[in-house]
Amino acid sequence: MLWTVGAMTFAPFIANTCGWLVTELGRYPWTVYGMFKMEDSVSPNVTPASLLFSNIVYFLLFGGLAVVMFYLVVRELRKGPDQQEEQEKEEEPATDPFDGGAFNE
Which sequence ranges are marked TM in the entry (predicted)? Predict the structure, then answer.
């Protein structure tokens, strides 16, 4: 059961990315059905090489961010819930700065 909870940590990121892809790939806001065809919508200034380059850059950027996020989440999950309690026990309580005697007579 805990493995399921750990795996669901990535669900919002995956759902957000998939929803964005479906939305953007399923529509062409500059194209009007029956009036402005797909052939007319293509920009003459954009080459296939520039599209490929920008897609590769975005893929590498988001892939790198996903790897970093996965690493950080797995690192925290491996510590377990007891790690936080141990850290709290090891910390010394904060001392009152007024206990030094400066204001005591």
Answer: 56-74
